[in-house]
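Appendix B, Record 12. Input sequence as logged:
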Amino acid sequence: MRLTDAALRAGLADLPSWEQSGNAIRRTFKFRDFAAAIAFVDRVAEAAEAANHHPDIDIRWNRVTLSLSTHSEGGLTDKDLALARSIDGL
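Logged structural output:
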């Protein structure tokens, strides 16, 4: 079920580095080099597979931007907040 605006605000309060962007939440991570960025993407892929919930990933040399949205629900759900918390723990 899609999150209400109030539930999304409450969820993002615990995820200060993530921001809403339309029907998604986004965060950009910066690494020392390309290899470190790719290693991070590999860890994200493992977490996403375990959650059966997959982010959109944009890699620009040492920067990785992740975008989370539950496409089947047409917006943000608890799955997105849970995966964001998991990613923040990597």
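The first strand starts at residue 19 and ends at 21.
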